[in-house]
């Protein structure tokens, strides 16, 4: 509920502050007095775009504040999600700077216009003649039907399911696209993979082959040097082994005479033992040196295969070829297994679709059930508003398509005169009729939903007399469940308000400013009398005004 509004330096307003109460409040004033300015300022609080041209004094900033009592609106979660302190009496402030920049605050916390818009939708519904066209919007028509049957919990469940369904369908399409793309490369990738797999590569084998080939290609030189080394080691007369034996015997004979000789003996003996071992290995190596032409050819062929694969795949190691083989294996498996994966995803999509279809069917059934109830209520209410021959027909079809609020398609048709054919609402109903229909719809919704504050901006345009009286009765009835603020030119409606405010212009030192004040009982009588008979208030107009107020 809007409890307070203050405006500074906006359009024709220098400074204005007003308190609002619950139930029905009336705002009246002459044409051009500034009612649209008031709504414009309120629009800024609700998150509309601002311009520096709206400043009355272009050197000063404009400040607009709205205070709302929101303890019964269940908005704690909204405040928590947007990291804003929740206050039962919440204050929204907009500041427009001379530079044209604007700032928005909720309970003194800076916020964005998007957050402000989202919050304001839950606080105030400003209804103008332009918004009567909302009646032709199928989503609004669905909202009416869903309110009558309390469909909103099911619709929220459906929306969550639809979000999951959309996500899964997107994943399924991506898998199918990837499969189609991979299939184009499948045969080539399979050939490359099988070629590498058949090569049976082992990490480190290239270096081992290259080393073995180096040995085989130099076998003659190796044989010559090993034979010479063996001869130098074991020759009986001048061989190193014989000489070390003699040296060992010499030091063995003198080792008892000195610890120094003994140490030398032990060192020479150690050298002899090591050299005997080396000699034995030289003999073995010399005996095992052999040339195998077939082995050489086999190793050369193997190395050439590795070189060819490396050149083909532009890599320089067997390790890189093995990594490529693993990558190709994954790609080949992906295509070979993609049908199974896609089938599993299709089953997942079908399972979710089945669940949301059940919800959509229940939503449809409830909407069908709500239609005759809504039609009956609308036709009865409009009959009291001078549209006794108006008939409605809702054409609802359950489709195969998924929409954001179900699977239904809806068309509202109207016949405004007895015997007339049904046609689209916007083509059949006049502006005044649309206003009365919208008022009836809002009245019906107010008994089913916790609606925010509603502001009717001259919804009574095009009506008068007994119809305006009935419209006033409807607004007064609505105000028992919610705060209703009505801007009107009709005295019959103005007299129904619990509070009455007047917008007027005032000349202060040759400066025209817009003012707003709450009228006292006597001022209210005068205002309604002027609405009845003009500026020259007669005693008859006064009596008529008192009669309306009573």
Automatic annotation (TrEMBL):
The UniProt entry's GO CC annotations, sorted and at most eight, read: bacterial nucleoid
From the UniProt record, list the coiled-coil ranges: 165-229, 268-302
Instruction: Offer an example of a GO molecular function term for this protein.
Output: ATP binding
InterPro entries annotated for this entry? DNA_recomb/repair_RecN (IPR004604), P-loop_NTPase (IPR027417), RecF/RecN/SMC_N (IPR003395)
Question: Domain RecF/RecN/SMC N-terminal spans what residues?
Answer: 2-507
Pfam families for the chain: SMC_N
Return one Gene Ontology term, BP aspect: DNA recombination
Is the keyword DNA repair in the record? yes
**Which keywords fit this entry according to its UniProt record?**
ATP-binding, Coiled coil, DNA damage, DNA repair, Nucleotide-binding
Entry-linked Gene3D superfamilies: P-loop containing nucleotide triphosphate hydrolases
Say if the entry is tagged with keyword Acetylation.
Answer: no
Against PANTHER family, the record matches this protein to:
DNA REPAIR PROTEIN RECN
Q: What does this protein do?
A: May be involved in recombinational repair of damaged DNA.
Query: What NCBIfam families is this protein classified in?
Result: recN (TIGR00634)
Q: Which family does it belong to?
A: Belongs to the RecN family.
- Protein name as it appears in the record: DNA repair protein RecN
Q: Name the species this protein comes from.
A: Lutibacter agarilyticus
């Amino acid at each position: 509920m809007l409890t307070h509004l203050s405006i500074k330096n906006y359009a024709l307003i220098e400074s204005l502050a007003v308190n609002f109460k619950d139930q029905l409040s009336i705002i009246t004033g002459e044409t051009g007095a500034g009612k649209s300015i008031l709504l414009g300022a309120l629009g800024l609080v609700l998150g509309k775009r601002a311009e520096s041209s709206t400043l009355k004094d272009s050197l000063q900033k404009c400040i607009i504040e709205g205070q709302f009592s929101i303890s019964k609106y269940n908005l704690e979660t909204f405040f928590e999600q947007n990291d804003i302190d929740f206050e039962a009496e919440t204050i929204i402030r907009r500041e427009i700077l001379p530079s044209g920049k604007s700032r928005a605050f909720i309970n003194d916390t800076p916020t964005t216009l998007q957050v402000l818009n989202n919050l304001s939708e839950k606080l105030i519904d400003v209804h103008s003649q332009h918004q009567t066209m909302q009646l032709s919007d199928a989503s609004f028509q669905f909202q009416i039907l869903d309110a009558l049957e309390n469909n909103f919990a099911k619709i929220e469940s459906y929306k969550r399911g639809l979000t999951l369904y959309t996500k899964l369908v997107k994943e399924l399409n991506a898998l199918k696209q990837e499969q189609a793309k991979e299939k184009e490369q499948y045969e080539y990738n399979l050939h490359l993979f099988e070629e590498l797999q058949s090569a049976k590569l082992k990490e480190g084998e290239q270096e081992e082959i290259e080393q073995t080939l180096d040995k085989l290609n130099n076998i003659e030189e190796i044989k010559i040097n090993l034979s010479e080394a063996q001869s130098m080691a074991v020759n009986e007369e001048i061989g190193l082994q014989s000489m070390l034996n003699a040296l060992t015997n010499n030091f063995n004979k003198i080792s008892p005479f000195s610890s120094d000789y003994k140490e030398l003996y032990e060192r020479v003996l150690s050298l002899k033992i090591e050299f005997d071992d080396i000699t034995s290995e030289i003999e073995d190596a010399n005996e095992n040196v052999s040339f195998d032409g077939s082995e050489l050819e086999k190793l050369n062929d193997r190395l050439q295969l590795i070189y060819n694969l490396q050149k083909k795949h532009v890599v320089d190691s067997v390790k890189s070829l093995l990594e490529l083989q693993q990558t190709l294996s994954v790609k080949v498996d992906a295509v070979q297994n993609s049908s199974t994966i896609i089938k599993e995803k299709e089953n997942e999509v079908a399972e979710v679709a089945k669940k949301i279809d059940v919800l959509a069917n229940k939503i449809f059934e409830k909407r069908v059930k709500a239609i005759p109830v809504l039609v009956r209520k609308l036709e009865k209410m409009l009959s009291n508003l001078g549209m006794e021959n108006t008939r409605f027909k809702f054409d609802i079809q359950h489709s195969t398509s998924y929409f954001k609020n179900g699977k239904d398609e809806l068309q509202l048709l109207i016949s405004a005169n007895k015997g007339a054919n049904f046609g689209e609402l916007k083509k059949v109903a006049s502006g005044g009729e649309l206003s009365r229909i919208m008022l009836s719809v809002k009245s019906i919704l107010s008994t089913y939903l916790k609606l925010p504050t509603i502001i009717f901006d001259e919804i009574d345009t095009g009506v008068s007399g007994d119809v305006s009286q009935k419209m006033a009765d409807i607004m007064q009835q609505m105000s028992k469940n919610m705060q209703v603020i009505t801007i009107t030119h009709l005295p019959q409606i103005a007299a129904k308000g619990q509070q009455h405010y007047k917008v007027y212009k005032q000349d202060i030192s040759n400066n025209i400013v817009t003012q707003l004040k709450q009228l006292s009982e006597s001022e209210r009588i005068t205002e309604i009398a002027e609405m009845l008979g003009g500026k020259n208030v007669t005693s008859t107009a006064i009596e008529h005004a008192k009669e309306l107020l009573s």
